[in-house]
Amino acid sequence: MNTRLTILLxxxxxxGPNVFGQQAHEQDLSSLVATAKRAQSDxxxxxxxxxxxxxxxxxxxxxxxxxxxxxxxxxxxxxSSAIQSFRKANxxxxxxxxxxxxxxxxxxHIHRSPEAIPFLIKAESLNHHxxxxxxSLGRAYVSDKKFAVAESAxxxxxxxxxxxxxxxxxxxxxxxxxxESRGWKLSDEAADSPWAKSLLAEALQKQSRVHEAISxxxxxxxxxxxxxxxxxxxxxxxxxxxxxxxxxxxFHDESPDCSLASLGLARQYLEQGDATTALDLLTKLxxxxxxxxxxxxxxxxxGLAAEPTSALSLALHQRSSLGDLDASLYAVLAxxxxxxxxxxxxxSTGANPSPMHRGGQQTRAGVPSAEADAGDGRYGxxxxxxxxxxxxxxxxxxxxxxRCAYMTGNYNRSVTASDLVLNRAPKDxxxxxxxxxxxxxxxxxxLGRFEELKPNSERTHxxxxxxxxxxQRDQQAVTEYQAAxxxxxxxxxxxxxxxxxxxxxSNIDEALATAKTAxxxxxxxPDLNILVGRIFVTQHKWTEAEDYLNRAQGAKSxxxxxxxxxxxxxxxxxxxTKEAIRELHLALAGDEDxxxxxxxxxxxxxxxxxxxxxxxxxxxxDVKEKQHERALIVVQDLGDTAQNDTQ
Length: 647
Fold this sequence. Notes:
single chain; mainly alpha; disordered N terminus; disordered C terminus
């Protein structure tokens, strides 16, 4: 039995007979209620439901009887009957918390989230102290794909109960969805803005496409020479290419208000073997803004050779033993790992307080002081200059707060500020930019907190595996998926992840073997069947591919375009041209790299339909340009082929 029902049953079991009115003292009703309560205590929920059904026949005017009946029906999985019972309780007394809450939960269970949301909003308004109401509301919003408001609900949940591992996990995943949706929106609405170009540069950097990242960072500076920390980010890209002179120039060209440039200089001193000067710089940064250095210190050792890393450790030990180093700074620097963080430039060493409890601190000096603090690179004080009541501020002030809060690692506050701007101006590119970056940081912290609360859980390893796979860190992904598979040997999900990594790494035999092992656990899993079908398509084994893909017709909507594309390839190569054209047209809705348009162009070319072929190839070019803007993987040589075909 899940936790939420256990909590509410405890409340209901403690409810005395008086809640049922004076008539509850009648023997039959009293006996039925006592029987139901005993069954509830024994978790015999069907028996309890039977007793409550008889009780409501005797007293259909008592809302708590209907509520208890609904709870028992919900516990047995009978959501439809539970909804009817809760609705009767709600009609009798709309102010009752339990019927509103569980009506929302039941509607969410049966995928009717738009109907669930009003009841859950009412439930939260009736009880501000139960974390289950905002948690359930967040889940309903996720089901309705309203990720930003879902995220807000999960943050309210954690303000009530910061030990709720389910809420941390849900917050992390929802923040990732916000990153994706708003990142796409920024690239669609303002592709030529420096904000979109900067996100693209960061995406390329994460994919280790450093040359392309440098080009984009230079484009950011061409569009706006004063873009926040653009020179500093360019400097770190030069460091990754071991272009130390260019990196040094970029760091020195940066505005004084960007502490990231000082961090870059400290990194260069480390690489030059001067750990003492590096540590002096880091100490000054710590005095200026502890939150900033806590969030960005990972950049000091990311990809750093063993010798300078050891020199930093020695310098830390010497300063600490002399009592000449702040203990918190020592803790941050001594805990630095040697590998790339899972997300973004900003990470977290765990030194910062929980993102759920980091509102503005200290005194509220006001916007002028915030601007002055930001100009000095004092992001923490800048964020603290703003009041918690953010509705009073205009968009310009909120964007300053979003930047300062993000730079000091206060992702929760940055999200709130950028959301307020987006509520007024949904297409504002700067607000979208800070929202994407802050949500990325918040997702990282939330999932890290979930891992602390649920260490070594299958779900944690599975999630980390997915994150590593998406960032093409294949070996780390394999390690996480194998750990998840060991914890849940009968769950096909880790094996699907493993097979996907093997396929991504061109280890086809291992990918097929792993996917087939997973299919033995669930032969109708659409994702697994699509994966195996895709592998057979690449091997030109059309009959085998078609067999597996025919089992994937229940695939999620986002996978259907890819399924149609694979079927189009099969039909084209087995002489079913009409069917191939139909499937490829169905695939166009999800054609992110121009492949479906290109395949159609080839078919039309063979059929002698030159106009249709040229039209499809024109779409290939358009899609390819969009794809490059969004930092997606470009189909190799597709552009050259298309160009040749149109001549």
